[in-house]
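Lab notebook, bench 4. The sequencing result for the construct came back, and we need a structural model before the next group meeting so we can plan mutations. Quick request posted to the team channel:

Model the 3D structure of this chain.
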Amino acid sequence: MRHVTPWVRALRRLIMVGMLVIAASLAVAESGAADPYILIDLGTLGGSFSEARGINRVGQVVGYSTTVDGFQHAFVWDPAIGLRDLGTLPGGLQSIAHAINDGGQVAGQADVVGYSRAVRWDPVVGIWDLGTLGGSFSIAQGINSVGQVVGRASTTSGSVHAFLWDPINGIRDLGSLDGGFSAAFAINDAGQIAGVSSGWAGLHAVLWDASGGVRDLGVLPNAASQFALATGINGMGDIVGATSTAAGTAHAFRWNAGVMEDLGTLGGDATQFDSFFWSSVDFGSGAFAVNDSGQIVGGAARTDGRVHAFVWQSGFMQHLGTLGGATSLANAINAAGQIVGSSSTVNGESHAVLWQASLNTPVGSAVVVDLDGGATQPGGVRVQFASVSITGVTSVGTSPTAPSPAGFQLGTAPTFYGIATTASVTTPIDVCINYVGRTVPTPESGLRLLHDEGGVWVDVTTSLDTGAKVICGRTSSLSLFVIATPAPLISATIDVSPAKWSARMTQQVTALIGNLAGHVVTEIEVDSIRLNGTAPVIGSAVTVNSRKLFTGLALQVQFDKRAAFQSLGPVQPGQTATVTITGRLTNGMRFEGRATVSIAR
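Done. Here's the predicted structure in token form:
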């Protein structure tokens, strides 16, 4: 069937194909018994393959599956009746369902004489051919609650353009940024459409408004190539997709109010695949759908190079399980947070799946919850509660960014762990993290587990096994965790002017900090300005104004003479005093410098 493979589906399938090869060689099954989501295998239409592509508010799922005779047929799955074959156009052999609205109307494609045609299945009237833009093929990708359908179709000139179809006006060409290629993938109830268009330098994510105007969403700052693809949009106009990064890796993004945000990965960036969009690229992650709660789903590379389905929310990406195989992808999410996609099985097949929230934290004493396989698996986390009185959900998400801890240094690409539970628990809580594949600072023997307790990072480390690469800590609450090492103290040079002090001194004292090339000082500890290592100069009597110089940071310190000499203690004229200043750099490392001044009459 010509043109039957949508480019976005090709992107997803090619990722899966590459990962299934890895799965066959690794033969690793996921342990997901305690993960916060349970997996439901939706089965097939008699063949060995199926994939879920869309889900509506009431939990009806659509996708496609191979049949006993090897053809691909669209299906709808209902919790009450299971899988049902949606059939094809008269005379056709294959079909695919991509999306479903709350009224049960389905958008997809079916073949006619070897060409793919955009179709809409209706619970009452059945399958409906939506036509083309004058060319030979069309594909429907998205549908909203009023039955408007979007996709792409060939024109009379042979170009491929995004289209919008509705029952009254039929099919309409949405155009593109430069008159070339475009495709639409999703539409919300306000008529906003997310997709992709060729532009002056590549393919860009775009937004069509209800009037048909097109907006270029651009790419991430400093992206290595001009590529971005918008595949999902919610009722608030949040858009998700995939884009090139500065490193040339494909990353999932969220676009909101003109700002494109990199959602990161599950720790890996090394999966190679070929597609219509890129000939050879490192795949880090891709987002395919977003609901009105801001939950985003897609697929992302893990530290072991395998691609797994994820759900992203509030800055943290959470791994979803598999059917015992090595890979999975999440394609859609509904308002209730139910997620659908595909997963490899133990025998290497790929099946349509449904992820549903699971109460993975039971009532009891010494309750252990293994997340992402637990502390014995790369990147896994184990949480143990002293006791649980009311069951709930315990989960972990990861993020590459969060407020850095003072006095500690992180790895070059740190991982912050957001751990939470809805269960009623008693403390203490023990947390163990397997950091295999994660970037951690050196030396490894100095690793510490830090916990954010009300905005203050606290060292909660109880054990470190560098052989198994597992670090554990004990705390009384759950929030952010990060693996770090104590920051080394950098020796700075300090020149103090004037270098001779007296009781009659009233002018400013300027301290110039040196030996910090390439660093930016973010904090000077006023109370650390000490004379002769005794009590600090009284903080209220000291003001610090800094300005960045080519050679360092100039600190202008105004001393109250009585406060200064009170700090000096029993120092006589002709003797010397040592001025000590410490502070913190932007990367959390600390510095200390000393200077000597003489005491005059």
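Residues 60 and 78 are 5 Å apart (CA to CA).
Will bring this to the meeting.
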